[in-house]
Amino acid sequence: MKKSAKSKEEVTKKSPTSKSRTKKSSGNIIMVTDQVYQIALKSIISSIVPHCPKEILVEISKFINMIYSKLKNLCLNSVMENDTVKRRELAWENVTRKVQEVLFPLMQATNAEQKLLL
């Protein structure tokens, strides 16, 4: 009897490639891709920073600050043109946090002389 009970259990178990698992995994692929992308960019910055003189890194930080503030309206208008101000601000805050995370190695290397993305 135990054999037949076991085979019923095996039959009712879903395989790892079942539709429900695939659907759940593909739903998270955007989030996973975003995380991998962010890690890759941060790693690239981390790899470049040790090869640049500190003076150059400070100038890069200043330049990023200068252009970043100008990107806000351009980026938000291209994607969220008809959204509320509140949603647009929230989106930009989230983007800023992600960019700061990616640029953290640069901020560390410049000893935060030039705080990025003010």
Account of the 3D structure:
The protein is mainly alpha-helical and 118 residues long. The chain is 78% helix and 0% strand. The model has no long low-confidence stretch (mean pLDDT 81).
Tell me the major beta sheet.
none
> Which term fits the overall shape?
flat
User: What pattern of helices and strands is seen along the backbone?
Assistant: HHHHH
Strand content: under 5%
In round numbers, the mean pLDDT is 81
Report the uncertain regions. Answer: none
Q: Structural class per helix/strand content? A: mainly alpha
Radius of gyration: 23 Å
Summarize the structure.
Residues 1-26 are annotated as: Disordered. This protein is 78% helix and 0% strand.
Highlighted features:
78% helix, single chain, 118 residues, mainly alpha
Write the layout of secondary structure elements.
Blueprint: H1 2-12, H2 19-48, H3 54-80, H4 85-102, H5 104-109
